[in-house]
Amino acid sequence: MSRYRASIHSSARPRSAFDSLSRFDRAEEWDPGVEEGSMLTEEPVRVGSRFRLVTRFAGRSVPLEYEVVECRAPDRIVFRAETGFLRSTDTISFAADPTGTLVVYDAVLDTKGIARLADPFLALAFRRIGDRAAAGLRTYLNAVPTP
């Protein structure tokens, strides 16, 4: 298992930050590891909504289909993708503070079967990928309108 957790402050209010990040197909706007994204179900975002992301990992394009498995607007949303080799669970929490919102992004990558042998390598790569995504997310959140 590999885990990456980042806390990021945004001047946006929780609802604005939630609305922006709950559209997971827009991850390509802030995560340099995402090549493309699309929403596979109709709005609004809710439990059961699905998103397809094509990510870049180890020099390869890897398509992942994420499903919203928990949605408590504007406090928390959980996305999960699963393949024959891994399960990715991304939990994003939003907490109001005096100057905006504290966004906590918690990503867990569980490998399955023989892929578990790659866990030590995967943990290092996941940290680098997470650091780049967190930097992009910080910039993206600072551009979210603050109504």
> What's the count of strands?
7
How many separate domains make up the residues?
1
Q: What best-fitting shape do the alpha-carbon axes yield?
A: globular
Major sheet size, sense and barrel closure = 7 strands, antiparallel
Give the DSSP E fraction (strand runs of 2 or more residues). Answer: over 45%
Specify Rg, calculated over alpha carbons: 15 Å
**CATH fold call:** Alpha-D-Glucose-1,6-Bisphosphate, Chain A, domain 4
User: Which stretches are poorly predicted, pLDDT < 50 over at least 5 residues?
Assistant: none
- Write the H/E string, N to C: EHEEEEEEH
CATH architecture: 2-Layer Sandwich
In the CATH hierarchy, what is the superfamily? START domain
How does the helix and strand content classify structurally? alpha+beta
Q: Can you put this structure into words, describing what you see?
A:
The protein has 147 residues and is α+β, with helices and mostly antiparallel strands. It has 2 helices and 7 strands, in the order βαββββββα. The N and C termini lie far apart (39 Å).
Summarize the SSE layout with pairings.
Layout: E1 2-10, H1 14-22, E2 34-39, E3 50-57, E4 60-72, E5 76-82, E6 86-97, E7 100-111, H2 119-142
Antiparallel strand pairs: 1-7, 2-3, 3-4, 4-5, 5-6, 6-7
